[in-house]
Design a protein that fits this description.
Number of domains: 3
Number of strands: 22
Number of helices: 16
Largest sheet: 7 strands, mixed
Radius of gyration: 26 Å
Length: 513
Amino acid sequence: MKGTTLLRFIFAVFIGISQTVYGQTKEIRYRYETSLKALSNDKLAVRLRIEGFSEDSLTYCFPKIIPGIYGAMNFGQYVSSFEVFDKKGKKLKTAKTDVNSWKVYGAQRIASVSYLVDDAWEAFDYKAGRGFYRSAASSFSDSSLVLTPNSLFGYFRGHIKHPIEVSIRKGINLYPATSLKKTVKPDHDLFLAKDYHQLVDNPILYALPDTTMIQLPGISVEVACYSTSGKRISKDIAEYIRPLLMSQTKYLNNKLPVDHYTFLIYHNLAPDKSHLAGDGLEHSNSTLILLYMPLDIETIRQNIYGIASHEFFHTLMPLGLHSVEIENYDYNEPVFSKHLWLYEGMTEYFTMHMPVKTGLQTEKEFFKIVEGKIADMKHFDTKLAMTDLSLHPMEMQDEYYNVYLKGALINLCMDIKLRELSGGEYSTKDLVLDLMAHYRGKAFEDKQFFAEMVIVSGFKELEEFTKNYIEGTQELPLEEILLKVGLKLKDGKISEVENTTAEQQKLREAWLH
């Protein structure tokens, strides 16, 4: 009896182990399928094959918003004919709970999900609605498709970190440019992502092949283009971007956070230069750039330069240095970080500062840009703290653009302040690189970041600076700060102080050269 009982006990334990270890008997994996050849009325049919859930009910979601934009896009609005089936093809009960979500009953039986997705824009132009970011949305046509995964593929709430496969059938001539891991075949492509976060982070441009590779020390860059003109433009753009990337690499002390990068560039031909438009959205290993302008390479180059530079610097912030709120981003109920002054403001400052620092631009050209930021900043609420704007960007869309103005000028002031404190040896760039090394890829706690900045930099004076000008609403001390480098700010114009001291000259040399 005792032996029989022991055997039963061992058998029962073994069964329990096999149920919990071997299975949850089957790994949950998202397997998406769509066919570009079956595009009908600007709609793509999408099918998801998935099983292995244990819940009685689940909610399938499309994002309300994604990282890098600060307005509600509600990608579920483009979805129709939503249906869920079990293994026998029987339809499961569903209920639409809001514009982006569907509740599915009997979730243990889920075997597939199917729906149609409409595109959000046709041909990119200068007409855009308030809070609508076309670089975050998809566009379909027979000759090209801009695919943003957040507008094509959803996720089951509570199951966002499972691996994903995306299978796309296509016309034989179409090439997919993306930084996603991919297998490309003549009529069928397979893409792999470790989870939904990585999938959303990698847009895909399908078009006739027009790509040029740039090889630089430590990084491989693909420039992939589509122009409605039918002309190939990637070679000319790549030749123009190459010196920019070399300068950015030099500016960052050859410490790039990524080893491969993709510029996805969609160009819509404009009849003239009366209305030009550009839009870009950064990702960890790529940037999607949308352009509306004539087929004039010089005009295209000039407009791409600023967008490409700004978006590439985003590999530092927030993609490399960010808070827990961004690390665990909630696509439908987002909680925002209070550090837009860093993510956008510092990025914009680096974009301004890099050309003069690396010799691509004169001091006068740089001062002209600073003067423009100062003038434009005056159109926004001076009593709104940058941290408050950061925490409520969706409610404060009228004030949001100030992160590129006051946010950049905050960092200009901080840069000169740090150089003064360090005898010219330490800068905001050094601070960012040191913070990235300090956190080693881990997200920081939002409320502790200012204190960590003081510790990492070694300058306690930063505590007062952040309290007054980032968390507080004190007017930026631009006149006082610029005077430290021998510059005078009067009536919005920057000029050199007469009889600058050796100390002022030394500090300006460290700042700008």
